[in-house]
């Protein structure tokens, strides 16, 4: 190694090779500009690449020299000599020293866009590499040291001098309690985020984990859902800088307790089997003024895929507000339906918060549709499109007519005590009614009416106070088949069509009109 000498005659070639290494480093930096611009100063990265390219070039030259010494020159390259190859690598160091002394510069060319104009990407503004020789001065001395030592690796001589990643969480641990629907933000300076996790810290079973979205550049993250009121949350975030070193931030914050709360009841219940007319329904304990905020957190998935829409309705008797999701047409038998409602922390209006998420998964059973013809005084029951039975009935008399329109079975009971006061009828009555299938919240039932048997009413005349009455035998037969969500379609009455909020009267609107009841349209 003592025989190594610089050869002034090869200075131009050494300068060209050093320039090639610098150009290659700059080209690679340009390809990675989206990641490198996340750092304040990407120059160390380019310097490191130039160093490694120079070291790699020297290693190839060294290996060729060793092969030449060990095996002799190949027959077709008579002019190859070990000292020439060594001089080529050593000349880089000589050129670097000379360039440094005379202060010369070889400015890197500007990248051009396909149309021939200069690229105005601010990457070049943030990349302060102004000359090839400035890179060569850094790269070639390391090459010379490696040449003389003969045993150092590139990883030993090159390192990335990058700033440590710094993570900021908002709200931080010193912040006052925040609103449950506040946005949580996590940002990374001098690096990219690789992990963000926000979980309830020792909270109750209803407290939810916070989900979020990462920016395209992976430099920021923000929450995409509200949080449980009155809950302490733990934040764990990790970021990696340009040198591959990680930084982790741990912090906590707390959400404010809800001074006013709202409750929700989901229908149908999970694991139930329901009829083809059953909507997915959420009934709220208090009025919802910010319906859009609630509806954004609701989702329905079906198998097979089924088109449908949310709509907001109000029960005309109780004032209860509901968000119902109904398909375009009646459900298909066997459909699997899943509701997911991320409601914990949602402000329903006037700072009245919901406290928990809810969900339900159910299945559509037999397609049972009963057609009530008040002019013919009959009810014909169909199951999966096949007629099962036609039942003689007696419905509402002219002074108390039955509702027209489509109704859905709400529930049923083998015996219900009914009074005139409960439905606001002047004609007084108080009866225990058997085999009662409930159709509207206003009090419409399909039931057995044993007190009318033998009077010639069934199949001939309408004499009830608005319900659909039948014999004890027919009432029991219908009761045992009826399931929540079954459809009862009534035609031929002098009364108006039942409203959407009176029971599940959702089907009395066309699908287009129903879609307009969504808060997001």
Shape: elongated
Helical segment tally? 11
Strand runs, count: 26
Strand arrangement in the largest pleated sheet = 20-19-18-26-21
Reported for the largest beta sheet, the result is:
5 strands, mixed
| CA radius of gyration | 40 Å
Mean pLDDT: 82
- Unreliable spans are 1-9, 77-82, 92-159
Please identify the structural class as seen in this structure: alpha+beta
In whole angstroms, how far apart are the ends? 81 Å
Strand content: 25-35%
Helix content: 10-25%
Pick out its properties:
521 residues, 26 strands, disordered N terminus, 24% helix, 5-stranded mixed sheet
Describe the fold and architecture.
This protein starts with 10 loop residues before the first helix and ends in a 6-residue tail after the last helix. The chain contains eleven helices and 26 strands. It has a five-stranded mixed sheet with strand order 20-19-18-26-21, with no helix packed on it. It is elongated, with a radius of gyration of 40 Å. It is α+β, with helices and mostly antiparallel strands. α3 runs antiparallel to α4 and α3 crosses α6. The chain has helices spanning 11-31, 33-36, 43-71, 82-102, 123-126, 132-149, 154-157, 291-295, 420-423, 472-481, 511-515; strands at residues 166-170, 185-189, 192-200, 212-214, 220-223, 232-240, 246-254, 260-262, 264-267, 273-274, 280-284, 298-303, 308-314, 321-327, 336-341, 352-354, 358-364, 368-373, 378-383, 386-392, 405-408, 411-419, 430-438, 445-448, 468-470, 487-491.
